[in-house]
UniProtKB/TrEMBL annotation:
Protein name: Cystathionine gamma-synthase family protein
Residue numbers bearing the N6-(pyridoxal phosphate)lysine modification: 206
The keyword Transferase is annotated on this UniProt entry: yes
Keywords for this protein: Pyridoxal phosphate, Transferase
Cellular component terms per the entry's GO annotation: cytoplasm
Cofactor(s) needed by this chain: pyridoxal 5'-phosphate
Amino acid sequence: MKEQGFTTHLVHHDHNQNLEFGAIHAPIYNSATYGYDDIHDLIDIFQGRQIGQAYARQATPTIDMLQNMICEMEQGKASLCFSSGMAAIVAVFLTLLKGGDHIVASRFLFGNTSSVFGTLKSFGIEVTLVDATNVANVAAACQANTKMVFVETIANPATQVCDLAEIGELCDAKGLLYVVDNTLTSAYLFQPKAVKCHLIVTSLSKYFGGHGNVIGGSVTDTGLFDWSQYPNIFEAYRKGDPAMWGYAQMKKKGLRDMGACLSSEAAGQLALGSETMALRVKQSSSSALALALMLENHPKVERVYYPGLESHPEYARAKSLFSASGSMLSLDLKEGLDCCQFLNALKLVISATHLGDNRSLALPVAPTIFHEIGLAARQESGISENMIRCSIGIEDTDDLLADFTQALANL
Ligand SMILES: *Cc1c(COP(=O)(O)O)cnc(C)c1O
């Protein structure tokens, strides 16, 4: 049979698990612990000889189902869920790196991820930030102790698109762990495995769940990395199939020891939200493009940042890699215009942080999410002081165009 499409597979995922009573949604298992008639079963689970549940800090049947769904979406070997995108990212760094290691990372990163690098430095892990839109900068930053390259697909807020395919080739040739944060594209717009990514991290709080009601994160091992050659795997996890060593270490150290586990309740909400991911992302990307085109020609707008515009420096790359350009766009108003006045004049668009919500959201970048890093770092990241970031939702395109138009007229 022909392989099923993205949404077909998602909406039939639960029912195909042979659920009790023919249920079409998997039940949400809220049990913290799991009991066995024969204690030998529990012992075998603890010792990895048998698959099963023990304690909800490592998994629940609901989390397992979500993990399997994510793994299939991303064509991976195994996936793990965490309590937030940040928990997933921190788990990757803290479980797979050690003092004395070096990371090369994109300079254009989600602000909190950059903030984590400050913490890593204090533990003796070196970080070099580069303009990763050109692989040559990544290659030039690699050192003898480099273990990992970390990039995002579309950078927030200035929408730079990293040299994803060439960085994949570089990591492959050098045996470096290639980690891609796919949050801003989602599994629907981009498959990082296609550019030889080893670990995909995603904030499920954004496009995956989509409804702005729950926070979560995931890591997927694409199965392309040779863990038998990775020096940082603890002896305890050098057992069985080497393809699962990295996963085992992230699960034990990241979930069991660090404890940032997702709840079954949240997993159930995320699974439900994900059913409409393709429909939502298609609609919001199409509105974002319509808005970007309108804004680019508007006399009160200085600049629009959106990878779907031909004027975008990485337009060709985004077009070849992503099935649409996503729903985040940023803009600079013309000199002298007040971005707060503009945001207050928007009637439909909510002034709020967050991305990938069904509702359109916007905020001024410099005084909020990029306030803490200061002016110099903002300039390094290509963030203007007047920049407004918008996360376009699934409202009707005409309503969004009308709202932006009236708010600009108001200035
Ligand atoms: C939001 C976001 C994160 C963090 O995710 P949370 O679920 O909010 O912790 C990480 N990376 C990117 C690109 C994000 O947009």
